[in-house]
């Protein structure tokens, strides 16, 4: 039996990280006949979570929201008509709860965990059974907590529902050492691709090489890293696919590195937000694209999540977790740590120690 109260965080009048409010005795949600109660073991932060707290998130959100999309736990109770899960199953939530399969629809934005629907920065959460997936058997729950946003986004960037997917012999360019980029390296290498990665320090670069990156470029030492990346490709033709997470500045370099008819998968704008760059100029670099494809990535569907989990199990892949774990009551420290870009891999908030 679940307790009646729980510890959780909510976002109040989002305008800064300290708009997060800790609630030591919030009610545990009840469940309907098609809902599942999940006892969370861990949550994992994304840059998007900081933007929501700061009031800078460009998509629908609401006051009083339980933040954070990434998390994993164990089914504690099921409604009377639930057929997909039973008590004891290890599960994670789907980022867009309504995106089951097929192309993304704008209506799904109001079903995003930690954005419009209460997320994972709490001990218990209630979800419709269609909005959950079983996590890979080879991962701990702490590892699985990193999958719903960053991992699935990386997977969708390389294996879209429509369009060309990564394949053996390709050269893939990744940027930085955050969650999406580290997952993209692992998925690309599992597909038999070569990987060129960028990062800001030699220490982080060494970690990316350990993950399988064939080449690492320090973008602080080499601001024109796009040209260097292109020189590292066969016949200096350019990279086949870019997992673009840095925004307009890095996208211009990615375009320089791109092969004719190559693909740029646009994931986010981490570097631009962190640097305070004017995002209104984001579309301008697209005007120069005439020799390749730029596609947006909106995390991914439940079908893609399940495909990714099968690949994680088959290849025994394990996510990169930052070495600093944070307790639930210290979540504000985790937010600051992520915002300051001190992390390598996923920043974990431990709710139950494994």
From TrEMBL:
Domain Enoyl reductase (ER): 15-349
Superkingdom of source: Eukaryota
One Gene Ontology MF term: oxidoreductase activity
Protein name per UniProt: Chaperonin 10-like protein
Pfam families in the record: ADH_N, ADH_zinc_N
Record organism: Stachybotrys elegans
Annotated signal sequence range: none
InterPro entries (UniProt xref): ADH-like_C, ADH-like_N, ER, GroES-like_sf, NAD(P)-bd_dom_sf, Zinc_ADH-like
